Amino acid sequence: MIEKELRDSIIAMVHREVVPAIGCTEPMCVALCTAKATEKLGCRPEKIEALLSANILKNAMGVGIPGTGMLGLPIAIALGALIGKSEYQLEVLKDLTPKTLEEGKIFIAENRISIKQKDGIREKLYVEINCIAGDKKASAVIAGGHTRFIDGEACLYSKTGKTNENSGTDSASEADVPLNLRLVYDFAMTTPLDDISFIMEVRTYNMNAAREALKGNYGHNLGKSIERPLSKGIFGDSIYCHIISRTASACDARMGGAMIPVMSNSGSGNQGICATNPVCVYAKENENTEEELIRALMLSHLTAIYIKQSLGKLSALCGCVVASIGSSCGITYLMGGDYERICSSVKNMIANLTGMICDGAKPSCSLKITSGVSTALLSALLAMEGKCVSSSEGIVDDDVDKSIHNLTSIGADAMCKTDEMILNIMTSKENRKK
Fold it and tell me: What is the pTM of this model?
């Protein structure tokens, strides 16, 4: 049994990392920072300057903003200033109305917003908003986490993304608990159920998002397409089909700009969906108990949190890689797998999915999530058959934690040039359209 103090610290960390969000978290992060700067200004800004890291720009350029029918940062910034409340965190725009949307469009048309890349910073998640009205100016900075306000600039940040001791955070968060897969597993399996049953909230949010998405037309409608007769002729009316549909549809809605909240993981709604819906659908159709579902969801989400500790909040590696590793762990457990089988599923995932790039948040993210979830199921099945990719193959190591760190080293360090090229390609396309 894990000591109570350590259990409590891990529970607090899960509460910080698994939170509700409306829309893609990168533009919502920018809207949140704008709301804070506007609150500091004390009046409606006349001009807004946004200075953003490359990864924020990449992830916010092509995604729908909930309730607006519009893409990208300008409307998120305008609405952050006009209706945003920083107390709402990543649900910052939930007070949107048709009237305020029109005001936001006018704000954009009047060229009141400037958006630029912030040069000379190491932090991949960096948002700086300067609001100006007459001779008054107020600023807010978020760095290192989607809701982490700091004083000063990201030059105070080390390569690991931790704040310098002199940075003077506005909303200081507790230190993360260093995790390993054994600790993640033991926590999920042995913590008293009453202490972790809160994780069922993720099912309420994310499965509801899937149901709501199937009622409308969002993104590429991948989730709905899988439910149609042609797809049923290919996939059948199977658990696999249902898992893919319920996961993809929630992503369709979120990336398509639906005003539907989801429960995020490590700053990503898609990661939250991918760590939740496959586990919930499998547990229902496999007739697992509620306790088994609670422990599987905690195992899935905490595994994702663990991997993100060394990968970072934003990287060139698609977040579906991280979250689908978590869901593969949860599904393996629901299949009756022990710790060794779960380690095998992780290694199988790393052998297969490593290298999938993140080229921004957008409707086609549902396609990538589908690939991740398909691999999660395949990896779990292989693990339950006693099959595991060996250390003589690729980047997989005998030690599961070393395998995970091999994965995150590639995503956080080796793919930095990839990140730069992705952004260059995306911005050159935008410039050609102008």
Answer: 0.88
d(CA 36, CA 318): 29
Residue 354 near residue 393 (C-beta atoms within 8 A):
no
The pLDDT tens digits of the residues spanning 262-284 come to: 999 998 999 999 999 999 999 99
Please give the average per-residue pLDDT across 364-373, as a whole number: 94
Q: Do 143 and 125 touch, CB atoms closer than 8 A?
A: yes
Give, in degrees to the nearest 5, the angle at Cα 141 between 135 and 147. Answer: 135
Which of 214, 236, 202 minimizes the C-alpha distance to 18? 202
Where do the H-state alpha helices sit in 256-364?
A: 269-285, 290-311, 319-334, 339-353
Query: Above 60 in pLDDT, residue 158?
Result: no
Q: Identify which of 380, 109, 281, 345 has the alpha carbon closest to the alpha carbon of residue 273.
A: 281
Q: Are 24 and 59 in contact (CB under 8 A)?
A: yes
Q: 376 with 271: CB under 8 angstroms?
A: no
Per-residue pLDDT reduced to its tens digit, 117-132 = 998 888 889 999 999 9
C-alpha–C-alpha distance, residues 279 and 227, integer Å: 19
Q: Which residues of 353-365 are buried (b: 16+ CB within 10 A; e: fewer)?
A: bbbbbbbbbbbbb
Q: Which residue has the tokens 């000591």?
A: 3
